[in-house]
Amino acid sequence: MPDDPNADSPALHRPAATPASAATAPRDAALAGLRVLDFSIMLAGPYCARLLADLGADVVKIEPPEGDDMRLRTPLREGHSAYFGQLNAGKRSLTLDLKNPAAIATIRRLVENTATRLRLLSAGPREEIIARSEVSLEDGKWKVTAGPKTIDTTPVEETAPPIEGAAILEHEIGKVALAYAKEVAAGKFDAAASWLSGPARAKRAAEPAAERKESDAYRKSTTPAPAAFADQIRVGGRLSFVGDKAYLQTVVSETTKNADGSITASSSSMSLGFELDGGKWRLSN
What we know:
Elements: E1 35-38, H1 44-54, E2 58-63, E3 76-77, E4 80-81, H2 82-88, E5 92-95, H3 101-112, E6 116-118, E7 134-138, E8 141-146, E9 160-164, H4 172-185, H5 189-193, H6 198-206, H7 209-222, H8 226-236, E10 237-242, E11 245-257, E12 263-277, E13 280-283
Parallel strand pairs: 1-2, 1-6, 2-5
Antiparallel strand pairs: 3-4, 7-8, 9-10, 10-11, 11-12, 12-13
Helix pairs in contact: 4-8
């Protein structure tokens, strides 16, 4: 991690993870010359920023002093997360404590010369960070065509300690999730609907028959078979609670060594929402 994170003129460090395309991007790459500040965590934001880096953008990942939690996500190799590496390859990194006024001043200076900011969760006072994401290529140069825009990224606070791994399977939600997956895998969608919350069942019942059929087909194509789902939960499952709602997410990372010596890294994720319905946990989506 970078030293002296709140220095007035911090150095940007490469890489945030494994060196990749942005580190050696040719000058004629689609996004060459475009700087992106990546404040995001978890999956969607880092993956989006990784794609921008692959296209030649100079992506700077901003992390808190303790680092992105995903740096500790399994599987680990020599103490480094393959999951984090796959999502953050090709980026530079900068550690800043955004509760420190000096760090905010640093961000302001970076923003002046940056076209795009990515943030999924609040990294500090909402008014301190601007989101500007619309750019276009004009006369061979990337220029901002819309913005600045601000977005509401008020953090969601968990109301109970999360549950991870195999322990999820012992929780009521884990059992509901596997029972639901079993019915979906068998094509018994009406039976699967019994594991939905009242509002979710009502929404499904109100869908036109053709739309409901498409929705059921999508459920079957995206829901793992029970045994595979249980394995995914054991390896990369996390269950978080926010009031009377809960969210089950699984993230599975795989790394394959190719015949030419290169390494292919991939990851897949799945998320299911739950809510209390009559005192019982049921799927909300």
